[in-house]
Design a protein that fits this description.
The chain is of the alpha/beta class. It has eleven helices and 16 strands. It folds into three domains: 103 residues, Alpha-Beta Plaits (2-Layer Sandwich), CATH 3.30.70.20; 91 residues, Elongation Factor Tu (Ef-tu), domain 3; 126 residues, Nucleotide-binding domain of ferredoxin-NADP reductase (FNR) module (Rossmann fold).
């Protein structure tokens, strides 16, 4: 029987719903018992007759732990793909359970010798709702060191929530404010609060800027935006064009549905103003009410499918932003097509 001590939910997710436990290949197992004696959660028992390790209580296994696999001298122990754990960590309820646990046990878990992080008041000077994206424009006081592509950690005063990080989506030193694009995540505390409750003139707490995802290239450029990954890239594009209005720039923006092109007016304006800025818009689903862009190209396809049909110039610098898993996929496409890895830049 599984030990009740080890059956509590993992970050809010019932342990019985999580397929994570070792499997022993008895043809390989030499019966050394390293796994049996090394596991303090009593996942294993030992078969003294046949001198083999037996997975006896798989639900006792700590989610994500692979110690027995790592220490097996003959590689006889395997686990499910680690994507099982990574997929769980993407769940909103898992994020919230971790957050709640952290604040509940703050008196125990807090590092008491931490140096105070520099903070600024971020006053909301404008708020727009476009589809499921909240666009916030905030006054952060001194904006000289804040560049497009870097990110700011935003906190809501009075909430026992961790800060959320959002990319700078404009050119603060030119505009005088910092713009953020916040996609509403169903059930997401911060994004739903920003969408439904935040008002103009309210203030957030801002930390940063952080990150090194900025565009300093002097070459021709190709930006790949997936969903709201447009945010840091549109800021970079504006920053480059302010300094060099003739720069050769392509923007590939892929979304699920045509109505997800929440920044289409601004894209059209840039394409109309700068002759060498060429947008490529891709949506898997086409809404009949969607107006085709006045400039550039539009394809009704999956983003990856359309991207695979592109011709890539090896002398361009490429910048990619979007979901983490997609970043690596699109990067591999570029490298397979002869683009040197040093010319590919991603958020992470």
């Amino acid at each position: 029987m599984p030990d009740p001590r080890f059956l509590k939910p993992w970050h809010g997710i019932p342990r019985e719903e999580i397929d994570w436990h070792p499997t022993v290949d008895h043809d390989r197992c030499i019966g050394c018992a390293t796994c049996v004696t090394g596991c303090n959660r009593l996942v294993y028992r030992y078969d003294f007759e046949n001198e083999k390790s037996i997975v006896y209580d798989p639900l006792n296994c700590l989610v994500g732990c692979t110690t027995c696999h790592n220490t097996c001298p003959v590689d006889a122990i395997s686990f499910p793909p680690f994507d099982v754990v990574l997929d769980l960590e993407k769940r909103v309820d898992e994020h919230h359970a971790v957050e709640d646990d952290l604040f509940t046990r703050r008196d125990i878990l807090e590092y008491k010798d931490a140096k105070p992080a520099p903070k600024e008041q971020a006053k909301i000077v404008d708020k727009e709702i476009r589809g499921d994206v909240t666009i916030l424009r905030c006054d952060l006081g001194n904006v000289q060191n804040i560049r497009a592509g870097r990110y700011i950690e935003l906190e809501i005063p009075g909430k026992n929530w961790l800060g959320r990080s959002y990319s700078v989506a404009n050119v603060p030193f030119s505009d005088g404010y910092v713009e953020f694009h916040i996609k509403k995540v169903p059930g997401g505390r911060f994004s739903e609060y920003a969408y439904n409750d935040l008002k103009r003139e309210e203030s957030l707490i801002a930390k940063g800027p952080y990150g090194k995802f900025v565009c300093d290239s002097q070459n021709r450029l190709y930006f790949v935006a997936l969903g709201v990954g447009l945010a840091p890239l549109i800021g970079m594009i504006r920053e480059v064009l302010l300094k060099d209005q003739d720069r050769d720039i392509k923007l590939f923006w892929g979304v699920s549905r045509s109505k997800d092109f929440y920044y289409l007016d601004e894209i059209n304006e840039l394409a109309q103003t700068y002759k060498n800025f060429k947008p490529i818009l891709v949506a898997k689903e086409y809404d009949v009410a969607f107006k085709l862009p006045k400039h550039g190209q539009f394809f009704k396809k999956r983003a990856l499918e359309a991207f695979l049909e592109e011709i890539f110039d090896t002398d361009r610098d490429y910048y990619i932003a979007g979901p983490f898993g997609a970043l690596n996929t699109f990067k591999k496409v570029l490298m397979k097509n002869g683009v040197d890895e040093s010319k590919i830049h991603t958020e992470i």
